[in-house]
Design goal:
Chain lengths: 177, 89
């Protein structure tokens, strides 16, 4: 189902080759518009995340070469940042939906908490929902005898993490009241 | 599967928009009658958001490791010089 992800190239190899081939052009673009090396690095790293989510996980078919596509994402992100007049507009700011309610703990705080409370579950849920790996691969990586027990474990982990989020919100409410 | 797991699966289908209209209406009705179920749906939505943030965080760490390697390891000296030349005015 997911041809690009099944190819044996590791993430490290993938990112290294994209860096070698696309970063110089991305850096030239940012430099031409008065940006620094650090700014070029930041915007390029954000672009790599977008690229990974769209092309590698999402299997998006691009009309142009992958490299040209990645450079295009970098260009768009960079122009967007210049327009907004902010240098470090991070990806997270755009995606954090539930941040507006002041009585709740911040998503960053909850995430730190979940990492400690259930690292193994978070790793597994990441493989399912973020990396969207094939079920067999997940069963294999996390040591389950069958895809069915991996699926059962996934739902158990969702329940566990749901409880942890709830616990975290309750604790936080105690402090703010 | 255990009943609670089936419920969790149902909530997932609901949140991912993979439910028929009838099932969706049925679940939404149940939610109005059962605050505990409504709370579960709310929490499960948050879990998916957290998993996404977690995935991005891990990915970002992987990318930064590659960046570090490229800008420190001897075999990439040529690449580094090429990039640094861009920022010299």
């Amino acid at each position: 189902m997911n041809s690009k992800q099944q190819n044996p190239k590791s993430k490290e190899e993938l990112f290294t080759s994209l860096y070698l081939e696309v970063f110089p052009a991305a850096a030239a673009l940012v430099s031409k518009n008065g940006g620094s090396f650090d700014q070029a690095s930041d915007v390029f790293q954000e672009a790599l995340i977008c690229y990974y989510e769209q092309v590698i996980i999402g299997n998006k078919i691009t009309e142009i070469s992958d490299k040209a596509y990645l450079l295009g994402i970098t260009r768009n992100l960079w122009y967007q940042q210049m327009r907004m007049g902010r240098e470090h507009e991070s990806l997270e700011v755009v995606t954090q939906l539930s941040e507006t309610q002041p009585t709740l703990p911040s998503p960053h705080r909850i995430l730190r908490f979940l990492e400690t409370a259930g690292k193994k579950c978070m790793d597994m849920l990441q493989a399912f929902y973020y990396d969207q790996l094939p079920l067999e691969k997940i069963a294999n990586r996390f040591g389950f005898g069958s895809t069915r027990s991996a699926t059962v474990q996934k739902y158990k982990c969702l329940e566990k993490m749901r409880q942890e989020v709830s616990k975290q919100e309750l604790t936080y409410a105690d402090f703010t009241d | 599967m255990r009943t609670s797991l089936t419920e969790t699966q149902t909530i997932e289908k609901y949140l991912f928009g993979r439910m028929s209209n009838e099932d969706r209406l049925l679940l939404e009705t149940k939610m109005t009658l059962n605050p505990e179920l409504e709370e579960k749906v709310y929490l499960q939505r948050q879990v998916y958001e957290q998993v996404k943030a977690y995935g991005r965080k891990q990915l970002s760490a992987d990318i930064q490791a590659v960046h570090h390697q490229l800008f420190t390891a001897p075999q990439y000296r040529g690449f580094r010089q090429r990039v640094m030349a861009i920022f010299k005015t």
